[in-house]
Amino acid sequence: MKVNYIGSVSADHFTESFLPLFEESVPVGFPSPANDYLEAPIDLNKYLIKNQVATFLVRAVGDSMLGANIGNNAILIVDRSIKPSHGSIVIASIDNEFICKKLQLRPKIALLPENEKYDPIYIEQGQNFEVLGVVIATINQFK
Amino acid sequence: MSVFALVDCENFYASCERIFRPDLKYKPIVVLSSNDGCVIARSKEAKQLGIQMGVPWFKTKKNFLKNGGVFFSSNFALYGDISNRVMNILAGMANNIEIYSVDEAFLDLENMNLENSDIADEFAMHCRSLIKQWVGIPVRIGIAPTKTLTKVASYLAKEQTKRPGIFSISNNWMEIASSLKKVPLHEVWGVGRRLSKKLSVLGLRTAYDLACIDISLIRSRYSVVLERTVRELRGETCLQLDKSLDPKKQIVVSRSFSEKITRIEDLFPIVNDFGVRACEKLRKENQLCSKAGVFIRTSPFRIKDKQHSASKFFTLSSPTNDTRDILNGIRKSLPIIFRRNYPYAKSGVMLMNFSDTHVKQYSLFNADNLLKQNDRLMKTIDQINQKENLIRFASQSEVGYTAFRKTNVSPRYTTNWNELPRVNE
């Protein structure tokens, strides 16, 4: 697999949105020539989250979505402001419980697993079913 | 022309508890005060069961649970985060907003054409469905030419069946009058039950009666504040959005104890917890305080007990947000007000006389760089404790201030990595 280098990531930056870029004060003498070229470190929050107020994190439990690269214990980034469409990975509530599945709208509304071991869930008329939001990313941690 | 909206989250705390619990959709829910003392929020279903606001939990618990109700201890980490999300959405929808409380905001919709009620209704419906979809919180919206009338509109929005949750009043006296006739006097913003009792002597029953009263009579017999209310009810804009970025005037951290405390050794760690918490809040606001105080009191509801209530304020040598300065003050002040063998039921720490951190004035007796170091120390402690309360001052209680009796607090779904909602695949 080919890998492209994107840039450096600051560890503090995962939780802090505040950036003390010029904390070092230089009262006399030459300022660092690199100061002019300072850029903010790459921010995973900005990369992963499009609409912060509508985004929630949930933890996936199970292995029915392995085909969509969602492993057991993965953190899912759920955006409630995105309209679910045919083929979206969604968080849905069905029978008073949240589940993560692939949404099928055609020919029949169903929630599909991404693992042969499991069966699709067809939504029956009158069944309590609601899509909470669309999963826009999954974070699988190896360590 | 002025146009305002009042956006009011419906049964806010109870609605927050529902976001990640689809099984609670139609269940009666109550949220309890810290210590599980009394009911501070109710879902619609709980209101229908006749559960009153503020009722002691032990009195209503049995009946409520028998009727299938679900109760929660208060989870302010969750409510605060959800409130921020709602307020952020609203800020993007209006020229300006005034966050009035954790679950209410006024919006400035200047130049919206209120003559055409479709425009207002369309905006309100859009706003309502957006917040419901994005955050999962139901809101009620009242639109009107004055802030006082938005409160009236919001009250009337509760009863709307055609367009539930929204109501608008245009700047037309006939329309205003017909709305005001449906609102009891004590529901008017700024009137309340006590004043409405006084006003009922004049034969006033509804908001309409108040709006029709002679202004000069109100001014001479009551107050300019009430005069302003009357004018606003008539559609005359007197109040603008409170946009003042005035930092908070004071910070109070106080709690009732789950058990009565009679010994100062037992009281100190808890009061110190309050001091630590208050300083954290102060630093979050980027403020310094130059005065602080501590208070203790017994329970006025236990008539048979000996009663005592006292407070002691102290001045800091220079404006500070250093926890150690406050703990020092508490150490000196508490013994002065404490009396032996009184069953103390509540205490608290107050910080006041604020100034911004960037206008810090140094005292003659403090070295500048020492303060800077303390600044860093406090910042570091805050950063570490933000994730988990790992650093405590030796004089704090061993369990920390979160150790109040909370029997059923929901997970901090949105603010803690370990408590994220779990979703089965």
Produce a short descriptive summary.
The complex is a heterodimer of chains A (143) and B (425). Chain A is mainly beta and 143 residues long. Chain A folds into two domains: 11-48, no CATH class; 52-139, Umud Fragment, subunit A.
Low-pLDDT residue spans of chain B: none
Largest interface: A-B, 32 and 22 residues
Per CATH, the class of the largest domain in chain A reads Mainly Beta
Please give the radius of gyration of chain B in angstroms.
25 Å
Largest sheet of chain B: 5 strands, mixed
Radius of gyration of chain A: 21 Å
Number of strands of chain A: 7
Helix content of chain B: 25-40%
The CATH architecture assignment of the largest domain in chain A turns out to be: Ribbon
The ordered H/E elements of chain A are HEEEEEEE
CATH superfamily label of the largest domain in chain A: Umud Fragment, subunit A
Q: Name the beta content range of chain A.
A: 25-35%
Mean pLDDT of chain A: 81
Strand content of chain B: 15-25%
Largest sheet of chain A: 7 strands, antiparallel
Q: Unreliable runs of chain A, pLDDT <50, ≥5 residues?
A: 10-26
Overall mean pLDDT score of chain B? 87
User: What is the general shape of chain B?
Assistant: globular
Put simply, the count of helices of chain B is 14
> How many separate domains of chain A?
2
Assembly state: heterodimer
Task: Explain how this protein is built.
In chain A, 3% of the residues lie in helices and 29% in strands. Chain A has 143 residues and is mainly beta. Chain A has 2 domains: 11-48, no CATH class; 52-139, Umud Fragment, subunit A, CATH 2.10.109.10. In chain A, strands 1-2-7-3-4-5-6 form a 7-stranded antiparallel beta sheet, with no helix packed on it. The longest helix of chain A is centred in the N-terminal third of the chain and has 5 residues, at 44-48. Chain A is elongated. The two termini of chain A are 21 Å apart. With 425 residues, chain B is of the alpha+beta class. Chain B has a domain at 251-387: 2-Layer Sandwich (Dna Ligase, domain 1). A 5-stranded mixed beta sheet of chain B has the order 5-6-1-7-8. In chain B, strands 9-12-10-11 form a 4-stranded antiparallel beta sheet. In chain B, helix 12 packs antiparallel against helix 13. Classes of the chains: A mainly beta (143), B alpha+beta (425). Strand 1 (55-61) of chain A pairs parallel with strand 13 of chain B, so a sheet runs across the interface.
